[in-house]
Amino acid sequence: xxxxxxxxxxxxxxxxxxxxxxxxxxxxxxxxxxxxxxxxxxxxxxxxxxxxxxxxxxxxxxxxxxxxxxxx
Length: 72
Prior knowledge:
The protein is α+β, with helices and mostly antiparallel strands. 43% of the residues lie in helices and 31% in strands. It has a single domain, classed as Double Stranded RNA Binding Domain. The protein has a three-stranded antiparallel β-sheet with strand order 1-2-3, with helices on one face. Helix 1 runs parallel beside helix 2 (51-70). It is globular, with a radius of gyration of 13 Å.
C-alpha cells in the first residue's frame, strides 16, 4: 500500500470523503489537487507538485481543522 493510500484510508476512517485529480498548469507542469469534505459541510482543498505532498498537506489541514474546532 502506498503512503498516500494510507492517508486516504485514515481520512475515510475519520469521516472525511476525499478525492484527487491531476491537472496541467499554465506552465505545462503537472499539479495534484486533493480535497476532503464531510457531511456537515466542512471542505478542504489543497494542491501540490506531487500526489503524496498533496495528501500530506490534506492530512495536516484536516488535523488543523479539527484542532481549531476543539479550541472553540
